[in-house]
Write a structure and sequence with these properties.
It is a single chain. The protein is of the alpha/beta class and 275 residues long. The chain has a single domain, classed as Alpha/Beta hydrolase fold, catalytic domain (Rossmann fold), CATH 3.40.50. 45% of the residues lie in helices and 18% in strands. The chain is built from eleven helices and eight strands. Strands 1-2-4-3-5-6-7-8 form an eight-stranded mixed β-sheet, sandwiched between helices. Strand 1 and strand 2 form a beta hairpin. It is globular and about 50 Å long. The structure holds D-malate.
Amino acid sequence: MRNLGSNIKLVINDLSVSYNDEGKTGDPVLIFIHGFPFNKSMWNKQTEALKENYRVIAYDVRGHGNSDAGTEDFSIDLFAEDLLNLMDALKIDKAMLCGLSMGGYIALNAVENYPDRFDALILSDTTCTADTPEAKEKRMKTIESIRKDGVEKFADESVKNLFAPESFSTKKLEIAAVKEMIVNTTEESLFKTLRAFYERKETCSKLPDIYVPVLIMVGNEDKITPLTAAQFMNEKIKDSLLSIIEHAGHLSNIENPSEFNNQLEEFVSTIYYYG
Ligand code: MLT
């Protein structure tokens, strides 16, 4: 029996996972994976727009939102296994995946390791590269400064880089909601995820092997995973589409939801039609 609605709890391998499951049973399945350190609520506007024609699932990655952290060290491999465990528990054989930033790292890992389980991929504001030595050093400095100055300060600093300049006057409520998501993430989960990013492997060399349809989206003012990262993936993934979202920084789905949703809906409707 399917549980429908939001904030559903499911215990999988002793880990309590929180997810939203909307839309009709039997419709094509679209799974959303959020960025770091946010939670599934960042996909609310996409869920509203798509649930009419799709079964839409958004879940909290381990250690984020209302999902437990468990006891293991985090890794992108572990996050991808969690996704597959959730799909198995919900008896979802195949799905379309949409991941933003960290969600994109998880989606690329999942498509590489479990290619038969996915129909299509939407990569938003993300990259296939591993952390450079400078980025690794920054991860460690971030851990130190959270230890020293706390999560509130980390949230304030993060928000400055996440959004396009114009969003600070046009998207005040959304920015406050994102800050809230950050401060509600435990220090332990922040540290474990930052270490997982530090350790993560590149997926660029595997991009030519992706054979499902791919849409790449990026905010035109994304400073964290910029247009060049999106263009690189676009060149490497055969027949992939690239869409640049105007009036948006790193959180393009929140900063310009109407454009993001238009692009997403147009793309998934072709998968559904031909799929
Ligand atoms: C995210 O939005 O998930 C993060 O910016 C990812 C990262 O820090 O690499």
